[in-house]
């Protein structure tokens, strides 16, 4: 659910607790777990910890740092930081790069101490069993050629369902190689906008262009340049992992040696070898998401549409996904992503916020947070900026 809905949900839960009702809360989002009185940490069927979240967070006391005031390509800086000795975790947070160091390791000279978070302790504990992987280089192939034009363009894009207007004259443009985030509350119109730009839904009016191709006139040519990963698992559950990869390679027009090479590359890149014979529906959630992303990128698309790609997965899997997404963007792939987990939106070059079918804000994550800064909120998160923009638009509409 979106940030506003999450806040409302927690208000309801706190009311129940105030009435003496016990609540057992299962979540992959560690900011939610921090709100709980007690926590059970499970991994691979084992109980790793039982107790107050603050006690577990104390495992990394004195090991959390931030390099602040960053300019330039923060994703490249993160990739560089992950290669430094002693760095166990790294995360982009606005103009800062958050680092968690191994016990006894010295942080980079420009890093300053910050308060540890539960997620810092969680990730470093799991990485004792699953070491961090270096950011994967998605190169080796020439960057996509979009002829110097825009990768994606929406102009007055509108979609009506009967008397209901789901998307109302949305306009934005995305240059090649950018990661663009489309955010909004549930039902705001982001997924409908996504589907129109992918050619899965016909606009009522307006223009949608992908790689310079008007989807209204050359849909087939545009689709050949697109990779799409749905919010819900939409592969063939009764087919094995190998059969899904082979099917989608064929659907994208790959044949012969090129088809075999593409499938082999995805199996290696996404570490799917142990699951090749397993039915896709039986995969753990993280591997379902890996398979879905592998199928979406088999044909080396120039433009990748990701509709909530990490919904419900654990922090380690989210980091692995964003390593791959950042690696593809570094080699010229344009990425459009929707997400309700706004820590992820920090990786975007720009963010558009949709509310009641309209685009109400479009800027960098840092600029959106700057707009929410004030005496009551001196250091706003992107969640804070999101909620403030939605609330302000609601007041104006009223």
Give a verbal description of the structure.
With 398 residues, the protein is an alpha/beta fold. It is built from 14 helices and 16 strands. The chain has helices spanning 3-18, 30-33, 53-57, 74-82, 118-126, 190-197, 219-223, 241-251, 256-269, 285-297, 315-330, 342-345, 365-371, 382-397; strands at 39-43, 46-51, 64-67, 87-93, 96-101, 112-113, 150-161, 164-175, 179-183, 205-210, 213-214, 226-229, 303-307, 334-338, 350-355, 358-363. The strands form four sheets. Strands 12-13-14-9-15-16 form a six-stranded mixed sheet, with helices on both faces. It is globular, with a radius of gyration of 22 Å. The model is unreliable at 134-140 (pLDDT under 50).
Main attributes?
34% helix, 398 residues, four-stranded antiparallel β-sheet, alpha/beta, single chain, six-stranded mixed β-sheet, 14 helices
Distance between the termini: 24 Å
The coarse overall form would be globular
* % residues in beta strands: 15-25%
Spatial order of strands in the largest sheet: 12-13-14-9-15-16
What is the string of helix and strand elements? HHEEHEHEEEHEEEHEEHEHHHEHEHEEHH
What is the helix fraction of residues, given as a range? 25-40%
Q: Main sheet? A: 6 strands, mixed
Count of discrete alpha- or pi-helical segments spanning 4 or more residues: 14
Any low-confidence stretches, pLDDT <50, length ≥5? 134-140
Report the strand count.
16
What would you call the structural class? alpha/beta
Mean pLDDT level: 88
Radius of gyration: 22 Å
């Amino acid at each position: 659910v979106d940030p506003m809905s999450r806040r409302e949900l927690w208000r309801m839960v706190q009311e129940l607790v105030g009435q003496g009702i016990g609540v057992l809360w299962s979540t992959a989002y560690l900011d939610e777990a921090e709100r709980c009185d007690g926590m059970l940490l499970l991994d691979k069927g084992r109980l790793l910890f039982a107790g107050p979240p603050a006690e577990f967070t104390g495992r990394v006391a004195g090991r959390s740092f931030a390099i602040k005031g960053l300019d330039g390509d923060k994703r490249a800086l993160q990739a560089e930081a992950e290669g430094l000795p002693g760095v166990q975790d790294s995360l982009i947070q606005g103009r800062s790069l958050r680092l968690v160091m191994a016990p006894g390791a010295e942080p980079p000279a420009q890093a300053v101490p910050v308060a540890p978070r539960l997620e810092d302790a969680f990730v470093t504990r799991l990485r004792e069993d699953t070491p961090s992987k270096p950011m994967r280089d998605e190169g080796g192939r020439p960057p996509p050629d979009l002829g110097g034009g825009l990768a994606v363009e929406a102009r007055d894009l509108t979609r009506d369902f009967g008397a209901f207007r789901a998307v109302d004259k949305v306009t934005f443009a995305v240059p090649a190689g950018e990661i663009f985030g489309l955010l909004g509350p549930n039902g705001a119109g982001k997924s409908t906008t996504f589907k129109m730009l992918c050619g899965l839904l016909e606009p009522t009016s307006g223009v949608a262009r992908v790689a310079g191709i008007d989807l209204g006139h050359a849909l087939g040519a545009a689709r050949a340049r697109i990779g799409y990963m749905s919010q819900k698992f939409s592969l063939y559950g009764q087919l094995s992992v190998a059969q899904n990869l082979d099917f989608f390679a064929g659907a994208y027009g790959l044949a012969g040696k090129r088809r075999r090479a593409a499938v082999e590359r995805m199996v290696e890149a996404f570490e799917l070898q142990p699951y090749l014979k397993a039915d896709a529906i039986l995969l753990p959630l993280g591997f379902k998401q890996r398979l879905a992303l592998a199928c979406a990128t088999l044909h080396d698309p120039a433009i990748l549409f990701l509709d909530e790609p990490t919904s419900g997965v654990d922090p380690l899997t989210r980091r692995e996904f964003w390593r791959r997404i950042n690696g593809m963007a570094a080699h010229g792939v344009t990425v459009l992503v929707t997400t309700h987990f706004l820590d992820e939106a920090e990786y975007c070059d720009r963010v558009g916020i949709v509310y009641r079918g309209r685009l109400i804000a479009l800027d960098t994550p840092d600029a959106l947070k700057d707009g929410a800064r004030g005496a009551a909120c001196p250091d706003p998160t992107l969640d804070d900026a999101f909620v403030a923009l939605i609330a302000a638009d609601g007041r104006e509409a009223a």
